[in-house]
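User: Last request for today: this protein with flavin mononucleotide, please.
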Amino acid sequence: MKAIKSQAELESLRKKLSKKLNPKVKIVRVCIGTGCAAKGSKRLYELLCEAAKEAGENIKVEAKCVGCHGFCERGPIIVIQPGNIIYQRVEEPDVGEIFRETVLGGRVVERLLYEDPKSGKKAKTEEEIPFYRAQQRIVLAENGRIDPTSIEDYLIAGGYGALSKVLNGMSPDEIIKEVELAGLRGRGGGGFPTARKWRSCREAEGSDKYVICNGDEGDPGAFMDRSIMEGNPHSVLEGMIIGAYAIGASQGYIYVRNEYPLAVEHLRKAISQARELGLLGENILDSGFSFDIRINRGGGAFVCGESTALMASLEGRAGEPRAKYVHTVEKGLNEKPTNLNNVETWTNIPAIINRGGKWFASIGTEGSKGTKVFSLVGKVVNTGLVEVPMGMTLRQIVEEIGGGVKEGKKFKAVQTGGPSGGCIPAKHLDARVDFDELTKLGSMMGSGGMIVMDEDTCMVNVAHYFLNFLKEESCGKCTPCREGIAQMLYILDRITRGEGESGDIEKLETLAGLLDETALCALGTTAANPILSTIRYFRDEYKEHIAENRCPAKVCRNLFLYEINAEVCTGCGICKKNCPEIAITGERREPHVIDQEKCTKCGTCFEKCPFTAIMKV
Amino acid sequence: MPTVTIDGVVVKVEEGSTILDAARETGIWIPTLCYNPSVSAPAVCRLCMVELERGKRKQLVTACNYPVRSDIKVSVSSKRAVRARRGVMELLLARAPESEELKELAARMGVEGTPYPKVTESQRNCILCGLCTSVCEEVIGCSAIGFAGRGVDRAVATPFRLASDECIACGACAVVCPVGTIQLRIHEDTGEVEISPFKSRAKLLFCEECGRRMVTEPLAKQILSKVKIDWEEFRERARLCPECRRKKTAEALGLIASKSH
Ligand SMILES: Cc1cc2nc3c(=O)[nH]c(=O)nc-3n(C[C@H](O)[C@H](O)[C@H](O)COP(=O)(O)O)c2cc1C
Ligand code: SF4
Ligand code: SF4
Ligand code: SF4
Ligand code: SF4
Ligand code: FES
Ligand code: FES
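Assistant: Here's the final one, the structure of the complex with flavin mononucleotide:
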């Protein structure tokens, strides 16, 4: 394609592309996001392509690669136009039927539709599925609708319209004012007001300035940023170009987590497409503004996502945080003014420019505007990516969108904010999710992890799990983080082993306070959140562990026993056969017994007993 | 010049000086471990915490790298600052309970012992302050040592933990180490000095007159590369220890004196 030189040329290209779209063309969209791809969706895509080819010229069918729909739990997902029919958990043998019935015949294959477990009703389109219905999608709006490897698709959806709008009549100051009016706060964790950061960087002294997109996403289980980069890479670029123009930066970097090859591939393609069209590079849209973007692969450690560590890594040094009281907007990458924003933050920009800051600010709460993408995982029925307006209650997210706790178990807590977030108990389920509310509850927004926990979860064990993650990921540079986390983990270790002592809780609290006040970077200062929040809401559970050597959820191995209920046991002998320690004895058809001396609590018998005769006591 | 008020004492400092600079000016003591004026402050030991007052907001900061840009008020003796420094010291004592240097510093801070057990391994009491690596890189220009591993496994080491060819055995790292982790070992049999625990070795030069040990060969070479002097003259002078050289010079002077008479 030829480079575009003006707003008018861009609009006429957009029109031309839209015209080429034949509404009669049938489209089959196969999700090849990482979740669906892991379940074999690429093969489905190939099969559908073959079928489309065989079907001949008369009926034109396209099989499109698309980004994540969010409903990965139900993947592979296929959407068919016309009708917007959504099929879930599609397998290879289904392809023939889908093609014959739906694509060619226009009939719905009932068995592949989503069925609401509560009402038993089948849903034909996304809109009918509660998982999607309660969501509001700005950032993920085009995910699953456009082909992330096609700039044409992005243009038809209105892409780069915001960029041409700002280059044709908005001053940098006006852009920053619009973002300020929107009330956008950073989605990378801290919730820092984006406009304020941009302004400081714009006003910082020095001519070479940088903008960086933080796509390191190191939180275990999180994949919001990945899905945006994989599913709609041009939206990230467009946000960055607009930001660079507002700030006065000429070079941009996207720092992508090393484990995200597909995101890198799609971003690379998008960058070269944008360059070809003259939307990136020298003299963008003949405006006199030049800007280019480079991609860097992440350093592999969680802490590399921290701003100063990320910049050190970009400079080719060890990806470790630096102790500095001078802000990176003044002295960042190569000691030059640098503006770093998260992927999701950047992606919100085009929408804000297109629809106005006022519109954006009409969504959300007093202090938190717009939407937030969460990765909803754990013990909920529907897991996946969800985008909701700020201020939605936790209950709505867990029950309405998530479909409630799995297997009819009782809800115990929801962990938000990634490894250094906190656990929020049932009594706060009606809290409205925004930056300030979550912080008040002793947790945080973080980058948007949301893990639902049921009654079988031990909260001391949860704290131990997250702290252990942080211990592995601490860079070890500063004393409080390196030594303090190790000390806290040592105490938690003892408590979960049944060797807790009185005074342990207080010791944990002291250490937590010390880290908060003295650690060098936010990994250390927030490391105590998992402990503090679980102590705050589940202090009794800690006490039971320490004083009574009891794990009420029966998770901590040393604090409960496996026993066979003689009244239920049929004497089938399955447990005896499977016990690796040969700890179970009993005659056939007679109740069996576990020798507690030999039992290592591996849990094999508990899993294997077909009659649920084995209990944790 | 901005004014810094430390525990009520007022001092004026150059813009860009640190709180620690200002405190030293007033004679108020703030404990430090990872600070050395000859290298850039890594601010990693976190021992020098003081409380900074900015309007209504009070905040703990590290004195060794907090730049003074405007008039500020600082408290070294506030409860919060003392508690933070004590906490950090207690963690350090737990890591290196055998270090006499640490115990001494702790005592000076009024910290007697630690409530924490030893849960992390330290290589000969190393508290990972980073002074050795900074000196080697920034002052000596060798980068013979660096940090390896992360978290509690972090340690100072040579690349691949092998004796380093970059090391000139100058001993600067041993001099700046606050807890004596790094030691120089003289091997009389081979005429070498070893930088322990890094295993790096270098040949020593001996005085040609009295046989006394002098600097290492690579160090002498490096000095030569920096000092403007020609090799012959240098070798002539470097052959002797300072004392013998002085004697020689005196003799020579005496000789000149007697000749002229
Ligand atoms: C240990 C640690 C890890 C972080 N990892 C990420 C990350 O993976 N992605 C991210 O966007 N921000 C991460 N952050 C936050 C960044 O430091 C920074 O605040 C953020 O990218 C700023 O962007 P925003 O203003 O758009 O939120 C991390 C922070 C810490 C302390
Ligand atoms: S707080 Fe932890 S991760 Fe951050 S600099 Fe200190 S040791 Fe490294
Ligand atoms: S598997 Fe269950 S029912 Fe069978 S012997 Fe063991 S405890 Fe009894
Ligand atoms: S002795 Fe070796 S490691 Fe130590 S500062 Fe000198 S050159 Fe560096
Ligand atoms: S060896 Fe000494 S100077 Fe080097 S990091 Fe350890 S304590 Fe600091
Ligand atoms: S990967 Fe397909 S829906 Fe998420
Ligand atoms: S002396 Fe300031 S942090 Fe070490």
